[in-house]
Specification:
Layout lengths: L2 E2 L11 E2 L2 H19 L8 H23 L4 H17 L11 H21 L6 H19 L3 H21 L8 H18 L12 H5 L1 H16 L12 H7 L4 H23 L3 H23 L5
Antiparallel strand pairs: 1-2
Helix pairs in contact: 1-2, 1-6, 1-7, 2-3, 2-7, 3-4, 4-7, 4-9, 5-6, 5-7, 5-11, 6-7, 10-11, 11-12
Length: 308
């Protein structure tokens, strides 16, 4: 009985089993645990951070499993996510923006982790979409890890990429299985933690924004959905068909075309993030300005689609 049934905003035509999140979490868990044991005692990476990442990921995965079996309200969901974020902090993984006080870095770390988890969860609305986007973001984090000779980040990014991409074999339209909240929130957690662990500002300080580009599609979709709903006087927490992917479908895109387009956008944004990392300040600013203009025009274009 662990299945997702059509109804309401769920437009799939048949009952589809959950459980993909189990495979996703197992893949990431085994990869990180193996590297954690291999590097134990070397001091790089610290074994404590591995414990925190694995424990935090386990908490988020457990919360997602419970939610898939018996839907939770917003507060219990946030409680699982907040607890996982605190565990990550205790493991020494947090933002370190030099111009900000320590307490604000810690607060922003929690907000970032919880925000990204929910942003990735929100985009899991079309077969293959979350897997495609998380796979692209994962391989980008792996590249960032290689550029910085960071074993932890390189392995985490690669394992997220591998888990998400392998899952696509069973989830690309039409899906044989869903990842559910157990999968989407787990992917969101590890991507959020990975972007915090990365080092981006070797060549310019504006590259601090690189994680925002790498996770640009889920963040962009979340912001647009909130703005669209507030403009109509609706609660941002009330579900409706105003997501970017669903607007693309209303414009005539097939499921596969919409997934492919947004996956391509993720690849382009990730490439822009990596390129901007290695440029001097003014060149990097030009990249970010171009991306901002392009996304603004896209928002204007997609916002013209009428949604009930």
């Amino acid at each position: 009985g662990w299945v997702d049934r059509p109804g309401g905003l769920k437009k799939h035509e048949r009952v589809v089993p959950y459980g993909g999140g189990v495979g996703i979490f197992a893949g990431i868990l085994c990869s990180l645990a193996a590297v954690g044991l291999w590097t134990r005692g070397t001091g790089e990476p610290a074994f404590g951070s591995f414990h925190a990442l694995l424990t935090g990921g386990g908490i988020v995965f457990l919360g997602g499993m419970v939610d898939d079996a018996r839907p939770l309200g917003p507060f219990p969901k946030f409680l699982f996510q907040f607890t996982a974020a605190v565990v990550v902090l205790l493991g020494g993984v947090h933002l370190d923006v030099k111009v900000l006080p320590v307490w604000l870095n810690l607060v922003l770390t929690i907000l970032w982790i919880v925000g990204v988890i929910n942003a990735v969860n929100i985009i899991d609305i079309l077969d293959g979409l979350a897997g495609m986007i998380c796979g692209a973001a994962g391989i980008t984090l792996a590249l960032v890890g290689l550029l910085n000779e960071d074993v932890t980040l390189a392995v985490m990014g690669t394992s997220v990429f591998a888990a998400a991409t392998a899952f696509l074999l069973f989830n690309f339209p039409p899906a044989k299985i869903f990842m559910g909240d157990a999968g989407s929130q787990t992917l969101g957690f590890f991507l959020a933690a990975g972007t915090i662990m990365g080092s981006y500002t070797t060549f310019n300080n504006i590259a601090l924004l690189a994680p925002v580009l790498i996770l640009g599609v889920p963040i962009y979709d979340t912001i647009l959905v909130i703005l669209f709903r507030l403009r109509k006087g609706r609660s941002p927490f009330r579900g409706s068909e105003d997501h970017v992917a669903l607007r693309l479908k209303k414009m005539g895109f097939s499921d596969r075309a919409a997934v492919g387009l947004l996956g391509g956008v993720t690849v382009c944004l990730s490439a822009a993030a990596v390129v901007a990392m290695v440029l001097r300040l003014w060149a990097a600013l030009a990249v970010y300005a171009f991306v901002a203009v392009a996304l603004s025009l896209f928002a204007f274009w997609i916002g013209r689609v009428k949604v009930e």
